[in-house]
Each structure stands twice: as C-alpha cells, then as structure tokens.
Amino acid sequence: MKITRIDCHVLVVPDVDTGASSSAQDNLIVEVHTDEGIVGIGETDVNPWIARACIQARGTHSMGLGIEEMLMGADPLQPEAIWQKLYTGSKMNGRRGALICALGAIDMALWDIKGKALGVPVHTLLGGAVKDYIVPYASLLPTGRTLAEYTASLVEKVRRAREEFGYRAAKLEVCINGPYAHNGLNERDEHVIEIVAACREAVGPDFTLMVDVAYAWNDPKQALWVLRRLEPYDIFFLETPLDIDDLEGHAFLVDHSPIRIAAGEWQNTHWEFLDLADRGKIDVLQPDIGRVGGFTEARKICQIAADRGRLIVPHCWKSGIGIAASAHLAAATACCPYIEFLPAELSESALRKELVVDELRLVDGVIPLPQRPGLGIELNREALHKFRAA
Hints:
The chain folds into 2 domains: about 5-120, 2-Layer Sandwich (Enolase-like, domain 1); about 135-380, TIM Barrel (Alpha-Beta Barrel). It has helices at about 50-55, 65-70, 80-90, 100-120, 120-125, 145-165, 190-205, 220-230, 245-255, 270-280, 290, 295-310, 320-330, 350-355, 380-385; strands at about 5-10, 25-35, 40-45, 135, 135-140, 170-175, 210, 235-240, 260-265, 285, 310, 340, 355, 365-370, 380. It is α/β, with parallel strands linked by helices. The chain has 15 helices and 15 strands. The strands form 4 sheets. Strands 11-10-9-8-7-6-5-12 form an 8-stranded parallel beta sheet.
C-alpha cells in the first residue's frame, strides 16, 4: 500500500469570533489517500491555515524537506517509521510548534488507515483495550459577558450535563481573569471560588468536577490561595493555573496544593512532556493527540505517566474526530481515568455539531469500547463544503 494524495480542509464557522477563547470555531481536517482506496482521517488544534502550509510547503534542502513531499509513495502501515522520517526531514523548520501539530493530524490519519486495512480499531493497534468502557467528562464553556450571566450559564450547563445527558463528570471553564479571560471579564479570585461553589451545589456531591482557569495567574502563591479555598468542593484537578513555561512554579504548586494540577494541552512531542512531568511535577498530563504529534507521540506520553505514577487525561477541543482518537488512546491506557468531551448539545460551535457522522455516543454516562476499524468515524461531506475556507 502506498500514499497517493493528501487533502487538507481548512474549516471555519461563518460567525467566527476572534475575541473568543474557543478553538472549536475552526479546524484542519487531513485526509490521507492510498492506492488501495483506504482513506485516513486526522485533525489538529492549531491555526488551520498555518497547519496546511506546514504540510504543503515545498522543501528546499535536506534539513527542511516538505511534509507532503516526504509522504508521497510511503507505506501508511508504518506510522511510527513515517513519523520519524517526517520529524527528521523537517527538523530545521519544525521540532515544535505548528509543524508538529500538522504532523499530528497526519499521524492520526495513518493509524486510522492501518486500523481500517487490518480490520481492527486503533486501540487494538495501541496494545489492546485495558478497560470495558471510557468515561468522558463534559467540557463546559459558559457564555455571558457579565459575572452573573457567566455563572448562570455554567450552572445551567453543568446541571444539564448531569440531568439531561447523563454525564458522570464535567470540567468547568472558570476563566474570568488572566490573559485568556473569557468575554472581556476581569474578576477577582474570590469569584472563581463562588462559581465553583454554585456548580457543586447544582450537581451535588456524587459528581466529579474539574476546573480550568486558562493560565490565570503569574504568581504560584496566588494560585495556591485559590486552590486551598477550592478544596472543600472536591475538585478532581485544576487545569493550567500558571503560564505553561513556568515549570518551577508548577512544581511548587504540586508540592503544596490539596488539588491535583493538570497541564499539557499546548505541549508538542513527548520531550516537552518529560519536562512537564519531571521539572513541573504535573499530576495529570493532558496530551492533545493532534497537537502532540499524533498517536505515535501520545503513547510515549502515556508511558511517561505510567512510569511516574501520574494520570493521563487527553485534551480535546475540536470535533468527533479528536474525541474518537482520545477514546482509543484511553481504552489502551490504564492510567487514563477520563477523556475530555465537548458535548455537541452544549456547544455553540456548528463545526462541533455537524462535522462527524455517527460519532461516539454516551450510554449510561460512558462510551462503550469502539469496535469499528480505525478511528471508526465518518466525515460529513456536506459540512466539509459548508465550512470550507479559502
């Protein structure tokens, strides 16, 4: 089998809000075609025009070869060998950043091809399922441009996630201060605690809650002040409290926090996760399969976590493609208790709602093990046309 063509689809919702903190408004979908008619699908969470350019750019010398050029004629059933070839051949241009994200979409598609060709789901290729089902948490992004509207939106969404859709866990986006505060908000730290308290009251004690504050604080001691006051609300983890490059600050928090610290959504390659795990001491590693470099790198990160007694909870903020990828990784990873799941019913993104046909669904609050070959998902061709950008 040989790779014959790469299609890159840049997709954007028509009402894109550049002031929003949601990357679910755009996407880069990669389709890798083969001479046997099998097509693999992948996506990545980065600016889609940049990612497309990373794939399609021509090479000019042996240390800066073109991704698409290197892929032509390659055997897609050898994803790990291809990953090393692409990484080495593009190293002067890539190593980290957008090119690794683009490589992640390609790698995801290659594992999809391999599963389809062999007639097995991707989790079988990753070593086999170690659990009977996957537990998703509902990732909840509130609306509202005042503190009261924001709080009410989040309380309503978490209540619906539990009562209407049957989730067993949810993550609260409580991003009301810091560099990525939502909707122009700039509120005091005390309000973070008040919002979490209101959500805990709404769902009761027997429901798992996580909190994401989107890199809110520069000072680890300020973050610790909030963490200690959140302890009574039984938070499973607090995500991205500090600037991601402040590894010493993260280590301080892990040493002193009563709540697990989670991070990793922006990291590329397992080498960056080694720093996050060893220097930052992070409790919960959050590789985004598309961003980190695909399954080839994500499985190495799972081993990093297992070796250190840490947890894996994959980041996923795009579509049913990434959700499927996360589910397969979780199925084969014993130290992965949850995956991120952006509920289409509670998302404002039309892309999230329409891109994938017959995606993975909840049954009694869990996702049954995927059984279809490859990723097990199908693209909605009408959505590809509807959201296609220039």
